[in-house]
Each structure stands twice: as C-alpha cells, then as structure tokens.
C-alpha cells in the first residue's frame, strides 16, 4: 500500500528519536563521567523540543483536517461542486471526502426518487378525482330524481338499474385505479413460477367469455397444453384478459378473436388477433398510455387503463407487447414472455 504523507512523517520522527537515543548511548560510553549530566540535559532538551514541535504539528494537522471536512460538508449542503478533490490521493482528508461524497450522492438519489414518488402520487390523485366525477355525478342525479319525484314502480326500477350500472362502473374504476397505483408506486409484487401457459390463457378467456357470447364473437385458442413458461399465472392472465377485453369491446357482433401461442428460442409469443375496428399506426404507442381513449371510441365504455396495466404487468416479467393493426380489418397484439 502506498505510504501516506502523515504516516511517513511520523515514521521519520520515530526513526529520528530512535537514532538519537542510540547515538546518545554510544557517546555516553566515551564521554567522561563529569560531562554525562550536561550531555543528558542537552539530549533531554532536544527530545523535549522535538516532541513539542511534533505535538504542534499534529495539532495543526488536526485543525486543517477538521477545517477541510467542515468545508466539504458546507459545499455538499449548499449543492456546490466539490473542487480540489481527487479520489487517487490517499490522505485522510480525501478518504473522508470520498465517503461524504458517496453519502451525498446516495441522499441526492433518494431525494430525487422521493420527489418523483410525490409527483406520481399527485398525478394519481388528480387522475382519480377526474375519473370518478362522472359516475359520482350520475349517481347523485339519479338519487335526486328518485327522492324528489313521484315515479311509477316501473320507472323507479329503470332508474335503479341505471344507478346499478353507475355503481358497477365506479367499482370497476376504483379497482383499476388501485391496480394502477400499485403498479406506479412499486408495491406491485409478482410471483413468477414455472406453470402451464394453457391454464393461464384459459383463465384469461374465462374473464371475457360471457361478454363475447353476448356479441356472438367466436373465441379460439391454439396452445400446447404441455408448454410451460416461468410467469405469474394470476397477473399474466390479468394482462392477457385486458387485451381480450379490448378486443371484445371493439369487435363487431359476429366477429372472431383467436389466440396463437408459439415458443421461440428466448421468448414465448402469444398472438391475440381480432376482427375489430383496428388502430391507426400513429396511435400504437399512445394506446398503452394510462387513460388514453381514441376519439372514435371516446364515447364508448372503458377508462383507458386495460392496455396500460397489461404492458406494466408484462414488462415487470422482462417481457414486452407489440401491436399491428389495419383500420377496419382488426388488430394483433403480441405478448412476449421470457422463457
């Protein structure tokens, strides 16, 4: 290890004292008895002087060290650049400065993350407030009509049915927002395991089976029942189910939705094909943004969170999603899961 300036100086002092003591012992053997006392006093005086000088030097070094460290702390607290500092010097000051700089960088990263988390929470609160306004206002309006007007039993039931729809919409919205908030704040936990992909796809299809039957949409799946992939079955089914849900929404009555699974060298590819209205190529990236709704479907059902959640779930399993579509001819969403 390279010798530091402080250690070298102390070593030279000690070697000097040892040398003086050795020389004094030799000289004392040749000096007459009557002169020993004088030489001893001179030697002790010299040693005392050197000790005092060394103590003063150490005090000065300690003072300079503390001043340098305090100055470094002040610079870091003010957010200024730390100049005249080299990681290659092996002095005590540089070593402490290095640790202080590491601590400062770590705290700065944590502060940045804290600001980002705060901004994310603010955006979530704003989004939630905006999204719940419509169903809340509708429920308030329907409640007012029922309580302030004399209505027939048939009309009461109609208004109650409308209120039930709004309550269900509000419940769906809140569940989606909870999932989104967990996704964005890092509390979303996946538990990957080696599981059969056919079971996961069957679970996803069961989520939209009733709605597909209402629109007379044909569902089919082509997946090897023995194919296994390391993934979180529950949340992967949620992601695929969200894509299927979108396909059902935007596929006309009597259409078709097909799923094809093909293992690749590094990924397993899941193609979800529909005969729906299609997507403009310029919107391929936008459809995965939260709360995005294209103009042509803005009046329809949905809140624009399904594809956003799907991408988040797949991405957190080291996978990805792509889309290809043609207006009026349908879309194909491809989910890639790492083998």
Features:
7 strands; disordered N terminus; 339 residues; single chain; alpha+beta; 5-stranded mixed sheet; two-stranded antiparallel ribbon
Outline: elongated
Number of strands: 7
Biggest beta sheet summary: 5 strands, mixed
Give the SSE order as H and E letters: HHHHEHHEEHEEHEE
State the low-pLDDT regions, or none.
1-5
What fraction, in percent, of the residue positions are helical?
Answer: 55-70%
Radius of gyration from the alpha-carbon trace, in angstroms: 38 Å
Q: Cα distance, first to last residue?
A: 48 Å
The main sheet orders its strands as 2-4-5-7-6
Mean pLDDT: 78
The class by helix and strand makeup works out as: alpha+beta
What percentage of the residues does DSSP assign to strands (E)?
5-15%
DSSP helical segment count: 8
Set out the fold topology.
Blueprint: H1 5-30, H2 33-78, H3 92-148, H4 153-184, E1 193-196, H5 197-206, H6 209-214, E2 218-222, E3 228-231, H7 233-249, E4 256-263, E5 267-274, H8 306-315, E6 320-326, E7 330-338
Helix pairs in contact: 1-2, 2-3, 3-4, 4-8, 5-7, 7-8
Question: What would you say this structure looks like, in words?
Answer:
The chain has 339 residues and is an alpha+beta fold. It is 60% helix and 13% strand. The chain has eight helices and seven strands, in the order H-H-H-H-E-H-H-E-E-H-E-E-H-E-E. Strand 6 and strand 7 (330-338) form a beta hairpin. Helix 2 (33-78) packs parallel to helix 3 (92-148) and helix 7 runs antiparallel to helix 8.
